[in-house]
Amino acid sequence: MFRVAEFEKKGGRQIFKRFAVSGYRLGQKGQLRHYKRPIETKDRRKKNYVELNRATGQTDVRGKGIFENDLIHDKEENQICRVEYCEKYAAFIAVASILNFSFPLTFLDKRNQKFEVVGNTYEGVKKNDDNS
What we know:
The chain is mostly beta strands. It contains no helices and twelve strands. The chain has strands at 2-10, 13-20, 24-26, 32-34, 50-59, 65-67, 70-74, 79-86, 91-98, 101-107, 115-120, 124-125. Strand 8 and strand 9 form a beta hairpin.
């Protein structure tokens, strides 16, 4: 499972547009394709720039799925972290950042149900309106 972040080119910059819910497929070699238009995932200078976010297979405390590039709140450490895939360990990890220094905080696994999704790296932290 995956989601695709679409970007729009405005004034020489790529601006996050939306998460696409349909129209994309992932080939056997890992190439991302759209059924109507050509896309370029490597070059930010192109018009149809997209990024692939893989699912971690884990849900947060509210049952919402956690994806790569999500911002999560670690309730035990009281820290906002970014979800990244670590090729060295072949696992998803929560990466914390303090004063331009990033360090891995913990691995994401099924036994760890202490995370809450609070946003994504494209839009930032979202305000939570419900009081539950």
